[in-house]
Design brief:
Blueprint: H1 2-17, E1 20-26, E2 36-38, E3 49-57, E4 60-68, E5 72-74, E6 102-107, E7 118-123, E8 130-140, E9 143-155, E10 161-168, E11 179-184, E12 191-200, E13 204-215, E14 226-227, E15 232-234, E16 241-245, E17 254-258, E18 264-269, E19 274-278, E20 285-293, E21 296-305
Antiparallel strand pairs: 1-13, 2-7, 3-4, 4-5, 5-6, 6-11, 7-8, 8-9, 9-10, 10-13, 11-12, 14-21, 15-16, 16-19, 17-18, 17-20, 20-21
Length: 306
Amino acid sequence: MKNLVLFLGIVCSLNAYSQQYTVSTIPYAALPDTGTSILTQDDMFSAILPLGFNFCFYGNIYDSCVVGTNGVITFDTSYANLSCPWVFPAVPIPSPTNLRNTIFGPYHDMYVNNINMVRYYTVGNPPNRKFVVSFDSIPLYGCLTSYCTQQMILNEGSNIIEMHLLNKPNCSGWNGGATVQGVQNSTGSQAVAIPGRNANPFSTSNDGRRFTPTFTSCYVGIGEEENNFDINIYPNPSNGIFTVETGGLIDQGIIVVYNQLGEIIMETTLSSDKSKIDLTAQPKGLYLYTIHAAGKMISKGKLIFE
């Protein structure tokens, strides 16, 4: 019983502690620039827009959002129909002084002054729908002959965020060219930005990026051990060497191991069959593990090193 209480306490702390993302480069593959036109006035947020499905962002579930003319999606719907800041401090995220609970796709001062510049739609069938926001050939304020085309895609189920930039010029003469491309949580305490694109000037074209949640409490609530796949870890308890057997059911899964403070002590990719976990360099005791695949937590439990 003592171990179970401790295990539950670790899970509670991890739900708040470990909401993060990994960033990878992907081929530029924007979806069609169609849908409902919004935002015909510069430096504004849209009305509240339905996603069409539940989306998990930094551990919280949302079914609606607000889009800003300067290249952002925010889940803070209190911004609806208000001004979207066009000048922002050149402070890298995370920072509570920047927009919070926000996807920066990227965030920079664009000059929206006409219909069909910013459009959105939801496409696909459950459980694989996509929410798409497109910014089409929008001039950069202060550099009105330089045009930006960018798109953000939110994926149902995996909660993966895609950003596709057909063309993103630099406008160093306005706001110092400062641009942010990344994600930030609701308090400004956690964020992930693309290196070199965190309140920096940059330019790019035909660029695709993917933000994949490493794990999230949106999938699995607090409870005892959970195993949504036929994953076997043995021996457990052990002398510090554990075998993780997936039976080929998952591909490129990741196991994350935490100590009793909720600190990550190991993160490794699992093979499609059997993998070894070596905790012999750690103190004997109780550890928590989570296993993730395709952006989802699919299993969690405890490891006993004795």
